Amino acid sequence: MTSDYRIESSMPIASRFWPAARSTQFAVNDRALAVSLAAKSFTGQDEIRVVHVPTGEVVFRKPAPPQRVEWSEEI
To answer: Where are the domains of the chain?
Structure first.
């Protein structure tokens, strides 16, 4: 049996709901489950995508978190 959706990122994905610790992708049969898992997950510096495997269409994107800006006070 093949999975219809793949949650993926180029960085390891983390979440307390993520079933495969530190992996960069996970296959899921249900679109709603795939999107829910992706939305509740995070990476260090990359977006998370849900891809419909048969067509290759990206059906959901969670953008990368904003880069942290360091403040420097000059007097």
So the answer is: 5-62
Question: Distance between CA 19 and CA 31 in Å, rounded?
Answer: 16
CA 49 to chain centre: 5
Q: What does the chain look like in DSSP terms, one character per residue? A: ---SEEEE-SS--B-TT-SSTT-SEEEES-HHHHHHHHHH-B-SSS-EEEEETTTTEEEEEEPPPPPPPPP----
Comparing CA positions, the residue from 63, 58, 26 lying closest to residue 47 is 63
Q: Across-strand partners of 62?
A: 48
What are the tens digits of pLDDT across the range 2-35? 789 999 999 998 888 777 777 899 999 999 999 9
pTM score, whole prediction: 0.81
Distance (Å, rounded) from C-alpha 30 to C-alpha 19?
15
